[in-house]
Amino acid sequence: MVIKFKQKCHRCKKNYVLATRRSRFLMCWDCQKGDLQGEIKDPKFKRLLNIPEEFYRENAFLRDIKIGYLRWGKLSDKQIEAFRKSVKKMKEEKAKPVEK
Which domain holds residue 2? Predict the structure, then answer.
């Protein structure tokens, strides 16, 4: 079980971000939103990175992967696999009925 706590964003110092003990440089959605803007020309990556904005808002790992692609223009096979695995897990959680 991973313990999560809230910590203020390192950039704006006003919004809170969920963190774990492994988290280092945390940024909120509002601060990273501008970094996620960019044109993706490769159809393979366009299809891969075309997920709902809600997923990017909730998961900093997915944001980091997309920012890395926009910055460097490529991703390793392990990054692609981890991205797909995270998206699949988030889709399964959204599809799961809420228990009362």
Answer: 1-26
